[in-house]
Amino acid sequence: MSIDNIISQATADAVKALYGLEMSADKIVPQTTKKEFEGNLTIVVFPFVKAAKKSPEATAQEIGEYLQQNCDAVKSFNVIKGFLNIVIEPAFWVSVLNHIAETPDYGFKAVTPESELVMIEYSSPNTNKPLHLGHVRNNLLGYSLSRIMTANGYNVVKTNIVNDRGIHICKSMLAWQKWGEGITPEKAGKKGDHLIGDFYVAFDKHYKAEVAELMEKGMSKEEAEKASPLMAEAHEMLKKWEAGDEEVRSVWRMMNEWVYAGFDETYKRLGVDFDKIYYESETYLEGKEKVLEGLEKGIMYRKEDNSVWADLTNDGLDHKLLLRSDGTSVYMTQDIGTAKLRYQDYPIDKMIYVVGNEQNYHFQVLSLLLDKLGFKWGKDLVHFSYGMVELPDGKMKSREGTVVDADDLMDEMISTAKETSAELGKLDDCSAEEADNISRIIGLGALKYFILKVDPRKNMTFNPKESIDFNGNTGPFIQYTYARIQSLLRKVTEAGISETFANVTPQEKEITLIQRLADFPSVVEEAGKSYSPALIANYVYDLVKEYNQFYHDCQIMKEANEDLRAFRISLSRTVGNVIARATSLLGMEVPERM
Q: What value does the mean pLDDT take over residues 267-280?
């Protein structure tokens, strides 16, 4: 049992004995005592004041006295208004450390056949361009969230919906037909997603030139855009695709395969994966069918121009288009179709969509529509809405080819990690192969940590140079501390030093460190409840800071007292294990040496 649970149960026993108040221990949550006050854990006594019929101070005093007399873990206490600050018996922290060290899945709850099934959708790329920095944030958030939810005992299914149809896809296809001269990824020596992205940019370049030419002939910009022969050809290609034209479909399949091969390479390198991938080309017809079913039931209505709508005014929203007058689908219809297929494939209890905050309204509408159409999780779907990510010099635009490509970004991170590590002499004793692997771990760890440490709801600026710093709130700082601990443990093994100890009374710095370790399960739980990888990132940074302070101030290998030395080695090993567990929730690797 953790120290928090011990104090919660003892407090529940106290209020029952003192005031006859029956209260479940899990409703009493001790907080870490603020640094300006004496104590380790704080109990807020205001919920007990009514039953005690006394002032908050008197109530806290009585409960404190009861705990000191009846709970071995409590050494002393002090009262500040309605807050009971508890000092834990120093020797008791040793049993807390032993409990943590001996618990194989410390901080994680077991997934069982009875666990609720949570489906998490992330990535959602278009097949007309490679993954970019925005996708990197999306993928890292989605994958980290899947690890956090699994650690909270949920059965998790990671899913992706690929936007593989529509006018944007036709633009790349048409550009390849017009100017590609039969080029393939193999002939170009390029990843397929990059090659197709080049043609998307080429289409936009030619289209803009066409519009400019028409405007020179006296047309307004709007008239020129409507009159563009190139755009008309793209729309004609889309109609042929919708009609199942085999010539268009065969080009579409070939180019998509190129893109998927490129995506797979990027995903593997980024360290993310999926249990199931859905494709909009397969879901949009399912959505259309579901909307027509809703039309029959009176959930939707048809306008005179034959378009189909949902009236959401009673829900505080507006009227939402679901099928155009020509019968074609909109994004909302596709999402309904995808939901239908997913619900057929899995017994979903909760659905989480990892999508940027520009889609907030879309998911409000989707939630209502799915609920009206009978999906049991529809009303409770979670839109994990995150902010945009930019580089220090501003926004990115795919059409203009100014996007920061995910592959280029990873290359830059690994290269910078290698240069920085070499400058600091951290790769001096490594083979070339080992140096490359350590640079990869550091570079990608820096990228992941820098993005995930920010509250996901906030917009952020990603600064590659700042993220790779070996000091401060960065991935390399955390990884270096882990590697430092592993180096210490190798020396312990080589010297044959025992880790068995007895009769140790921890000092303040050691107690603070053990208390940080004891906080880990509650941080994991809160990160799952609030869908926030940032809580894990900030926790592991605080833990690492505390350890480095301890490492600086306390002798370990040179400690003369064998029991104290063994205790500090055990403490170091346990900190290393928790660092590894916490960083695994962020999708980060930690190196054994650096």
A: 97
What is the largest distance, in Å, between two alpha-carbon atoms of the chain? Answer: 93
- The CATH 1.10.730.10 domain(s) of the chain lie at 410-585
pLDDT tens per residue across span 14-52:
999 999 999 999 899 999 999 899 999 999 999 999 999
Q: Which helix (H) or strand (E) holds 439?
A: helix 432-452
Residue 175 neighbours by CB under 8 Å, 6+ apart: 199, 200, 202, 203, 206
Q: Which residues contact 386 (CB under 8 A, 6 or more apart)?
A: 137, 138, 141, 354, 355, 356, 357, 456, 457
Task: Say which residue the tokens 């995910």 belong to.
Answer: 406
Residue 394: per-residue pLDDT:
52
Query: Using 50, 70 and 90 to split pLDDT, how confident is the model at 398?
Result: very low
**Residue 401 above 90 pLDDT?**
no
Pinpoint the residues of the chain covered by CATH 3.30.1360.70: 3-89
Phi, psi of 158 (to 5 degrees): -95, 125
Place of tokens 């710093």: 469
For residue 397, pLDDT beyond 90: no
As a whole number of angstroms, the distance between CA 506 and CA 96 comes to 11
Beta-bridge partners for 78: 85
Question: What is the rounded distance in angstroms from the CA atom of residue 141 to the CA atom of residue 387?
Answer: 11
Say which residues have a Cβ less than 8 Å from residue 521's Cβ, sequence separation at least 6. Answer: 2, 106, 107
Residue with tokens 């980290």: 144
- Mean pLDDT, the chain, as a whole number? 93
Which residue is it, tokens 């099928």?
323
* Cα 329 to chain centroid, rounded: 31
**Tell me, what's the pLDDT at 389?**
87
- Identify whether the C-beta of residue 588 lies closer than 8 Å to the C-beta of residue 475: yes
SS3 content of the chain, % helix, strand, coil (to 5): 60, 10, 30
State the alpha helices, DSSP H only, in 38-116: 49-52, 56-70, 92-102
Please tell me the distance from the alpha carbon of residue 313 to that of residue 15, in angstroms, as a whole number: 50
* CA dihedral sign, ordered 29, 35, 39, 44: negative
Q: Taking CA 393 as the corner, what is the angle to CA 457 and CA 269, rounded to the nearest 5 degrees?
A: 65
DSSP string, 356-391: EGGGHHHHHHHHHHHHHTT-TTSTT-EEEEE--EEB
Q: For the domain bounded by 410-585, which CATH number is listed?
A: 1.10.730.10
Backbone angles phi and psi of 129, in degrees to 5? -165, 160
User: Which residue from 22, 31, 38 is spatially nearest to 3, judged by alpha carbons?
Assistant: 31
Spatial separation of the C-alpha atoms in residues 593 and 268, rounded to whole Å = 23
From residue 146, alpha-carbon distances to 32, 141, 278, 352 in Å are: 28, 9, 18, 10
Q: Please, are residues 40 and 515 in contact by the beta-carbon 8 Å criterion?
A: yes
Query: What homologous superfamily does CATH list for 3-89?
Result: Arginyl tRNA synthetase N-terminal domain (3.30.1360.70)
Nearest to 271 by CA among 466, 531, 448: 448
Q: Name the token pair of 131.
A: 């993954």
